[in-house]
Amino acid sequence: MILVTGGTGLVGAHLLLHLIENGAKVRAIYRNEKGIQKTKSLFQHYHKVSLFDAVEWVQGDILDIPSLEHAFVNITQVYHCAAFISFDPKDENKLRKNNIEGTANVVNFCLAKGINKLCYVSSTAALGDLAANETIITEESEWNPEKYHNDYAISKYGAEMEIWRGQQEGLKVIIVNPGVIIGPGFEDQGSGQLFQKIANGLRFYTNGKTAFVTVNDVVRIMITLMESSICNERFILIGQNIVFKDIFNTIADTLKVKRPDIEAKPYMLKINLFIHWLSSLFSRKTNNFSKDTLIAASNTKEFSNQKIKTALQTSFTDVHQYIKENFQPVN
């Protein structure tokens, strides 16, 4: 039987659907009923709700050792998709606890229970930094501790260290590093929030860029890697490096709303950063705009997907076309 952590998130929910469609027996961890309903809604989105009951749900948490003891009974493979994502500086301790300590718990159980193989969903945020002679980030780019990394990136990098510890102790592992993952459902998480902002009339864009990938490509490649003899490797999973303005336009056109039409200059971003920081001091609201957001909006780094394309002889879905085909507004 296969265990999936994070089965109530974008990647985990799609992974559950793909695994069950392929005839696998799957168990998934959930923390509350609300999360399960989100996954069920995704199955309904694809008109596959009849497959939802094939998931064996176990209530638990990767920080709760007794619940993991129950979840790991008769498990042979693990997909570790659970993670906490935040770019609010106030969440530093929560990021480290969930992403590093939680991953350490999963690794320890995999070792204790003799799990055949573990796949960990990391992030391009955990990849190394560009050296002076480099123009594109690969799996071989080295993490430079002297350079600035946000708390989320540090927590994912720390989680990867736990995965490699497990590998050194005899566990077969795979790490995947997706870019920004695009997929339907989960409008309150990740890229879903971007679609919501544009739908609600986002006016600003930047000419920074980042890497994007479709959720179907991510889970398809994860399953292929787990079923292959490949192990103890990491792979960058990205479809394309895309300028923010271009992807914002594609989303706006698909949703049939006005394109963001004001370029956010660096000084404007800094003013916005100050305003959000100031307001967060006098309220309990999460600071969704931080120094890290500013850096990301101005990013020009690119990532390579050549390693996975060569290893599996695979290709990636065009992200712009995927958006056009999967996010048309309901009439």
UniProtKB/TrEMBL annotation:
Gene3D superfamilies reported in the protein's UniProt record: NAD(P)-binding Rossmann-like Domain
Domain NAD-dependent epimerase/dehydratase intervals: 2-228
Segments passing through the bilayer: none
UniProt xrefs under InterPro entries: Epimerase_deHydtase, NAD(P)-bd_dom_sf, NAD(P)-dependent_oxidoreduct
Pfam family of the protein (one): Epimerase
Domain of life of the source: Bacteria
Name of protein: NAD-dependent epimerase
Organism (species): Flavobacterium pokkalii
